[in-house]
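Protein modeling request. Please complete all fields; requests missing the sequence field cannot be processed.
Requester role: graduate student
Desired output: 3D structure, token encoding
Chains: 1
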Amino acid sequence: MSKHRAPDTEETVEPEATAGRPVLRIVKGEPTAEELAVVTALFSARGSAEPAEPARTRAGGWADPARLTRPQLRPGAGAWRSAR
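Delivered output (84 residues):
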């Protein structure tokens, strides 16, 4: 006989967190079966929709090509001095 015991082979299966719990709950009012079906269909469609594209971030001022152009000349007294 061996002195070592065989390990327990039973596996513990955890139930899902939402098992037995309703996903939607009516808080106020008495909706009809059709209204509940519409709300359920909307949530189902929203949940299965493709994710939206992430918003593009705007480049900083250093990457702006307009930065490389000269400022517009403004006519007036002493404008030729500031045109450097």
